[in-house]
Design brief:
This protein has 12 helices and 19 strands. It is elongated and about 130 Å long. The N terminus is likely disordered. It has about 450 residues and is α/β, with parallel strands linked by helices.
């Protein structure tokens, strides 16, 4: 087998005395993992040939940088085409970019659809001209905890990779201290559907250049969680040129919302995650056609908005003292209000909540009055309360029921509606008394006669 094929299948050859340095194949899961392969044990890679997922951990590729890599002959192409490997993971290795640029084109003869790099260091810059016109079967590419040279000023490299980048559908660059993304990359990623940039160092000013006019024209899912974003409206202005965006995750950024803004979110946006963003009020404007809104783990005291298209609303872990008016959400089917400061569900809201498919109000300081306990018990009986019932629904007041499960609080008619029982009894007794008086009067009248 040629050096190029060995590099493709085992990007991690090194002499590693006293450590695991061979491949292990799990036949049931069609999964193979190789650790620190040496020249003596590289033969164990043969057992990975039936695998669909292969991982290579550890290695020193620098000594292979100068190896001559020729164009593959027909036998090498046939060997690569016979492999059923669909995903390759490369981890804990220093990757000379010049070597990667020369080897990557061999993937065009394989069926590999996913390529992932974890905890890698990319050294130097490579000449990607050999990739001109080469399309690859790889549709998903991910980098986690990687270090590389800055991406700015590398338009020529992106241009050489355009045949492949133009077909890529998923890209993830996470936990890699990324602070900017050149506009040129987005313009090459013409078919990208999902972009994950979580756990990086992107700030408000980095979004507009990255999502410039013509960049990411097919993007539907964007994750920006755990970055250095701070302005709600700044993010809005940064992504407003993404025409097909449907899912946006801004969670775990400390956001502030200015009083007013003319920015308009992409009208295509349907799922919006604003959880753990430090907001103390609902920001405006919100995307006009939202179907899922997650504002959990914030500091909201009230939610007084109307969203006619929202189907799922997550408001758990806030400071709400009352249930938002369900009338403001005519197509709502899911409402989560766990861990707030709600003491009771109003009777009219209980009736509306009963129309939803999934309601969660666990771990609130409930007042177990007749109406408070009765409303929750009625919801539970209808099967609409989600996980947590009955164990996580406990009374905070009155004192005699503190700590009780709401489900155990008696809400019998005699206890909770005594007036409703006594009133008809009193009326009946009064009527009987009147009837008795009439009879007595008639009896006396007859005796006198």
């Amino acid at each position: 087998m040629s050096v190029a094929v060995l590099l493709l299948l085992g990007l991690g050859l090194q002499v590693a005395e006293g450590r695991r340095n061979r491949c292990f194949f799990n036949r049931t899961q069609e999964f193979c993992v190789c650790y620190n392969l040496s020249e003596k044990t590289v033969g164990s890679i043969i057992q990975c040939l039936p695998a669909t997922v292969v991982e290579f951990w550890g290695g020193d590729l620098e000594k292979y940088t100068a190896f001559p890599i020729r164009d593959p002959d027909s036998s090498v192409i046939e060997t690569l085409g016979s492999l059923i490997i669909q995903k390759i993971v490369i981890g804990n290795v220093l990757v000379p970019e010049t070597l990667l640029a020369r080897v990557l084109r061999f993937f065009s003869y394989t069926h590999v659809q996913e390529l992932a790099f974890e905890s890698c260091i990319f050294q130097g810059t490579g000449d990607w001209s050999d990739m001109d016109g080469h399309s690859l079967p790889i549709l998903s590419l991910s980098f986690h905890n990687v270090t590389c040279a800055p991406l700015t000023g590398r338009e020529q490299a992106f241009s050489s990779l355009s045949s492949w980048l133009g077909t890529l559908q998923e890209l993830a660059v996470t936990s890699s201290r990324l602070s900017s993304l050149p506009c040129a990359i987005g313009r090459e990623l013409r078919a990208l559907r999902s972009l994950d940039l979580a756990h990086n160092s992107l700030g408000d000013g980095s979004l507009a250049p990255a999502f410039c006019q013509g960049a990411f024209p097919q993007l539907q899912q964007l994750s920006l969680q755990h970055n250095d974003l701070s302005s709600y409206h700044g993010v809005c202005e940064g992504v407003e040129l993404l025409p097909g965006l449907r899912h946006l995750d801004l969670s775990h950024n400390e956001l502030t919302a200015e009083p007013s803004s003319s920015c308009q979110w992409p009208p295509s946006l349907r799922h919006f995650n604003l959880s753990s963003t430090g907001l103390d009020e609902v920001p405006t404007p919100l995307p006009p056609h939202l179907e899922v809104l997650d504002m959990s783990h914030n500091h909201l005291h009230a939610v007084d908005i109307s969203l006619s298209s929202v189907k799922k609303l997550f408001l758990n872990q806030n400071l709400l003292q009352a249930v938002p008016s369900i009338r403001n959400y005519p197509v709502l089917d899911t409402l989560h209000l766990d861990n707030n400061s709600i003491s009771e569900l109003p009777r009219d809201e209980v009736k509306l909540l009963g129309r939803l498919q999934d309601v969660a109000v666990a771990d609130n300081p409930f007042s177990c009055s007749c109406s408070g306990a009765g409303g929750l018990q009625a919801l539970a009986a209808s099967g609409h309360l989600g996980q947590g019932w009955p164990g996580s629904y406990r009374c905070h007041s009155p004192a005699q029921y503190r700590g009780w499960q709401v489900a155990r609080v008696p809400v019998s008619v005699l206890r909770c509606h005594l007036a409703a029982v006594l009133a008809p009894l009193c009326v009946a007794l009064a009527l009987l008394a009147m009837a008795g008086a009439v009879c007595l009067a008639r009896s006396r009248s007859c005796r006198r006669a």
